[in-house]
Amino acid sequence: MAFVLIATSKQTLHTKTAQDLSSSGVEVRSAANWSGTVMELSNEECRMVLIDTGMSGVETELLLNLTRSLPHSPDIRAIGDTLPAVEGEEVVKRAPQGPQALCKVVLRRIDRGLKRQALEDLKLMGLGDAPFERISRLTQQSLPIRIEGERGTNKEGLARTIHALSEGSKPFIKLDPEQNINIEPDCGTVYIKEVNDWASEQVEELISSATRANCRVIAGSRMAHKESNNVKWASVLISPLRKRPEDLRALTLLYVNRYRRRLGLSRRRVHRSLWALILSYRWYGNSRELEYFIVQVVTSVEGASLSADALPPSVRSLVEPESPVEKLAEGFEVVVESRLREMVNGYKPNTGLGLHKLATNATERALIKLALVKTGGDQQAAAKILGIARNTLRSKIVSLDIETSKNR
Description:
Layout: E1 3-7, H1 11-22, E2 27-31, H2 34-41, E3 46-52, H3 60-69, E4 75-79, H4 99-109, H5 116-123, H6 131-139, E5 145-148, H7 155-166, E6 172-175, E7 189-192, H8 200-212, E8 216-221, E9 234-237, H9 245-262, E10 269-270, H10 272-280, H11 286-300, E11 305-306, H12 313-316, H13 324-346, H14 355-374, H15 379-386, H16 390-399
Parallel strand pairs: 1-2, 1-3, 3-4, 5-8, 5-9, 6-7, 7-8, 10-11
């Protein structure tokens, strides 16, 4: 994919120039010395070089002659002071000052790297400051990339963005553990949807095959990376939406405007009552869940104001604040895990019932006892609370040897 080369050994100058370009969706590469500049310049995808005149070893005449000899004719622009004139040649043009002017010149010379929607999503994906610059750096290294994030954080979308920036029109191939690993040479990008579902030997074999075939490997994972002596990853973490309230607001407005335009609707305003629902919800499904909700809102509410009162019950229920019971259930797993850890650590195999049976019987027995206490022994009412059939409850009472004071 076409890129702009920033050639400077000064970190502050590189950072400022790269930041000015990052929002334009153009891939940026770097060189900190003359030899690195020449190497990147010879790449047929290099469309423009922004070169620092103060960099050691810069040879202006050779630079101009080299660019003329190349079939892709990269444009040379100076950042910093103007390059010295060469006899019989014009002085290398100075790059425009200011981000807007610089981006305008660059985009005339280079194809835009990402479509507008991909750029909008990338900025609000939860990758921290300067996400495009960060992802651009990832595309320049050869290690397999591991994208970590909760469900619904659009890990595959980020993988496709990295693919677009580094592999262009080459294939994007998704694999699952059941497929035979057969990678064609120079295939582009191989994506593993959930790497933790794979055996470590499969992952190692896949990466080895992809390396031989000159292909990139990107993996998605809901779990934190565990170090491996055989696989080294370049990792990137997507922050969950509930930890980014400022992005929650921006994403809501982005989805509202995106889908009302697709549907040919006039402008829509998010009423404060709907904001209250959106901001009070935890969004465990992250951006994917938010996008689904906004689609339901835009397609079910008429008029310019999207208010909570206008939502159909089925849509409103998607973001109703959690009940006290749901909040208690949220911490239940933590308490249970603490007690189960003692059971697991102290359990010896072949000593009676299996550990799974012991744990589930104890949990069910306690839950049924409490439901019967709450209903005064009324099994029909207890079954309704538990969400099971009455006959199922009766069977469990017998099999778990639960004493009952009332049988009705």
